[in-house]
Amino acid sequence: MVGGGVVGLTTAVVLAERGRRVRVWTRDPVERTTSAVAGALWWPYAIEPVELARTWALRSLDVYEELAASPEVTGVRMVEGVQGEADLDRAMAWAGARLPGLRAATAEEYAGPGMWARLPLIDMSTHLPWLRERFLAAGGAIETRTVSDLAGVGAPVVVNCTGLGARELVPDPSVRPVRGQLVIVENPGIRTWLVATDAAGATAYLFPQPGRLVLGGTADEDQWSLEPDPAAAEAIVRRCAALRPEVAGARVLEHRVGLRPARGAVRLEREPLPDGRVLVHNYGHGGAGVTVAWGCAEEAAGLAAPS
Ligand SMILES: Cc1cc2nc3c(=O)[nH]c(=O)nc-3n(C[C@H](O)[C@H](O)[C@H](O)COP(=O)(O)OP(=O)(O)OC[C@H]3O[C@@H](n4cnc5c(N)ncnc54)[C@H](O)[C@@H]3O)c2cc1C
């Protein structure tokens, strides 16, 4: 396995728990991956193809609901919130049966058309180490190692979960960064999440996580800089404070930047190598890698080791 973000670790867990001998090679420790930056709300945002993403998301929802029974351990909680400007009918059509209570937001909950839902909200600072430990407990191994040639990895099956790294490694120029910036503040008492888009199309979101409030966000295509931009941070706080005024004076704890691995379509497929070995790709999950992680992991594991 190459890649130890949420997609790689989840796939590694599924394979190892199916009894396969799995070794993960990762360039970065899990705390320094894009996955560690994610907010992370369960919702298929900025991922293609939409229909498949919904299927993967619903499978992942099953798992996250189970994990939410132990939030302190897994980092997964079911949290209520509002998506502003959401198409409730469309959401009902694909997810209504699985999301009890999905309904239009009231005027007190959101000043505009909005959708109320109870969704998994995942604290990645707990969830990623938990995934790592679950993988190790299943007999897996992790090594910090940068791969420059997938076919050169000496394993009968190689699973490629390198996210944006696939651009150079495969190489696959269709994987492109969509830069996202966040501001982490002390939580002034907000308990529900909120996602809203203003008239100019700018998105603002507030995700309450244990010990902090995550404010977002930006989505800048083909931007590679990992340096937080002070003007963008100011705009994020301003947009969030317009929605929840108590945010205006909240003490800033941290600025975070991540590069979403965007692609016209997630690449989840088996590629036979000339020497008879098998390469499985599982990358390009854009803005929803956490949302679809378990559905994609099970499909990738099936491609890697058909039962
Ligand atoms: C600001 C922001 C907010 C987000 N919010 C959400 C959200 O609310 N919900 C949601 O579902 N998603 C969200 N996302 C998207 C989500 O973070 C990504 O889709 C997801 O993290 C992708 O996971 P990954 O494992 O494919 O990639 P990564 O986390 O980038 O992991 C890639 C792994 O591959 C390794 N690697 C790369 N190249 C090599 C190489 N050559 N050799 C060895 N190892 C290599 C890296 O070291 C790393 O371990 C957000 C993203 C950002 C930036």
Overall description:
It is built from eight helices and 14 strands. It is of the alpha+beta class and 307 residues long. The strands form three sheets. Strands 2, 3, 4, 7, 8, 9, 10, 11 and 12 form a nine-stranded mixed beta sheet that branches. It has a three-stranded mixed beta sheet with strand order 6-14-13, covered by helices on one side. A two-stranded parallel sheet has the order 1-5. A hairpin with a 2-residue loop joins strand 9 (203-209) and strand 10 (212-216). Flavin-adenine dinucleotide (FAD) binds next to helix 1, strand 1, strand 7, strand 12 and helix 8.
Jot down its keywords:
globular; about 25% strand; alpha+beta; 9-stranded mixed beta sheet; 3-stranded mixed beta sheet; binds flavin-adenine dinucleotide; 8 helices; single chain; about 300 residues; about 30% helix
Average pLDDT confidence is 96
Run of helices and strands? HEHHEHEEHEEHEEEEEHEEEH
- Overall geometric form: globular
Helix content: 25-40%
Largest β-sheet summary: 9 strands, mixed
* Unreliable parts: none
- Distance between the amino and carboxyl termini: 19 Å
Bound molecules: flavin-adenine dinucleotide
Count of DSSP-assigned helices: 8
Assembly type: single chain
Please give the radius of gyration in angstroms. 19 Å
Strand content: 25-35%
Number of strands: 14
Structural class: alpha+beta
